[in-house]
Every structure is written in structure tokens, then in C-alpha cells.
Amino acid sequence: MFDLIASRIVYRLLSFEQGTYAGDAVHFFVMDVMKIFVLLAVVITLVSYLRSYFPATRSRMLLAGRKRFGYPLAGGLGVLTPFCSCSAVPMFIGFIEAGIPLGVTMTFLIASPTVNEIAIALLFGLFGWKVTTIYIASGLAIAIVGGIIIDALKMERHVEDYVWNLRFDNVSDAVIPSQRERIVQAVAHMRSIISKIWIFVFVGIGIGATIHGFVPASWIVEHLGARQWWSVPAAVLIGVPLYGNAGSTLPAIGELIAKGVPLGTALALMMSITAISLPELILLRRVLKPRLLAVFVGIVAAAIVCVGYLFNAIL
Questions:
Q1: DSSP code for 83
Q2: pLDDT digit string (tens) for 237-292?
Q3: What is the pTM of this model?
Q4: What are the C-alpha distances in Å from 3 to residues 120, 180, 203, 251?
Q5: What b/e sequence results for 24-40 when a residue is b if at least 16 CB atoms lie within 10 Å of its CB, and e otherwise?
């Protein structure tokens, strides 16, 4: 459907010639804009509705005192609970204040940006359920293993001292919203997210369209193909200093894959951008001392490299 509508717009309405570099690039752009924004609207609204049953205070209550099951529970809540770079510090403080172990807290912080509804929606639309399932499983595995390692290293002393004396602003969950209120809030949240990321989505799709129309597949495969063993760690290193979200990175990454870049290499780039971006690390430095922050980055980066090689080996 999207392909047919895009063809009519590009080749009939805009009079681009089919089969040309420019025509193919514009067709790719129009088709992906429609497909991605429909997916974003549907999935973000659905996930936002489900999130209304897991507010921050309830998430902390579920995790407090449950260290044995805390890691998988924290990972699952990290996927369902609202999280962004700007909320990293208050969420971290709130979990510590609730008595949740540091390792479990770090599992939550790793899972939230690594596995998110935008990435799930776009991956499902671009690559199907198999890749999406592996992405979710690998992201949760990174978060759980990372939290367990940090807990085993006993790094509580590397949390900034003032954190232990701060109190998280407890928001009461006593008022239970109605179904209508949940739906209205979910739609409002969807509109809010899209209003913040639409420009990045357009830029990402534009980059993907440029790659699709004008960059030869042979050049991409030669420099980032499966024969280059270093491509996965290089992708992670490239992604660390960059800032972006799944909405802005996946369209371009999808086109890299279409041009011949191995799936693991491309997803390693995306996961490093979303999980250990520079702005998030700057914010986390407010609550983590340098050694713990370095351990956090090292564990996540190493795990993403392993996931990248795994994807390349099995897909």
C-alpha cells in the first residue's frame, strides 16, 4: 500500500522518472515517511496505554526487596516505563532511595534506552518479527548481565555521595485513571513524542534515501561488509559520541542493511547510539563517579559488540 501511494506521488504527481537515482531516492523517502510515522503513531499509543499501568512509583515498589528476581523484572520494566536522557538522574535517585540494589537499578537504566517502543516499531516494520524478537532479547540480556556484573563489583562507593541523601519526589498512584483518561493520555503522549522527534526522523530517512539512491552498494560492502572483522567494534565506537534516537537512526541503518552491511554491524551502531550516547553519559555523570561510569560504558559497549557478532553469525 505504501509503495503504491508513494509511486503515485513521486512518479505521477511530482513527475520523477522511475529507475533514476533521484526518482528512487525520492520514492524511498516518501514511502518510508508514511510507513514509519504510521508505525510510530500506532505502537507509541499502544505502549503508552500499557505504561499507564506502570507509573514510576509502582515500578520502584515492584523492584524493592526483590533482588532474586530483580534483574529480569527491572529489564522488563525498563522497556515499559517512560525513560529518556533528561529523566536519567531523577529515576536513578528514586530507585536508590527506594532501597533497590545498584545492580538492579543499572539494569533498569540500561534496558530503558536500549529497548524502546520506537525501535521495536521500526524494526518490526523494516525487518519483521524475527529480528525484532532477537533485538528485544539481546537488549534485555545486555541490561541483565550489565547489572549483575556491576552488583558483583560492589561499586556502591562510586555513586556520588549526595545521592544517598536525596529524596525522590514521590508521586501518588492513589488516583487510578479511567479507561478514557488512559487512552487520551496515550494519544497525547504519542503526539508529544512525535512532535519532539519528527525532524530527526525526517533527517534519518533523508540520509537513508541518499544512501539508497546515490551510494553504490559495492562501496558500502567493501568498507563495512562481513569480511571486515573490525566493522562491529568500529560501529560501536562511532556510535558512542553521537546523539540520536531509534527514530532518527533506523531508517538510515535499514538502508545500510539493504546495501549489504551485515545486520549485526548496523544494529550495533544503532544500539550504541541509543544506549550510551554522549548526552546521556554527561547526565549520568551527575550521579555516577568516573570509575562506575567507565564500567557502565565498558560493559554495555562490550555486550553490544558481542550482540553484533551474534547477529552477523546467525542471520
A1: -
A2: 877 766 555 656 666 677 777 777 788 888 888 888 777 876 667 768 878 899 99
A3: 0.63
A4: 22, 35, 20, 16
A5: bbbbbbbbbbbbbbebb
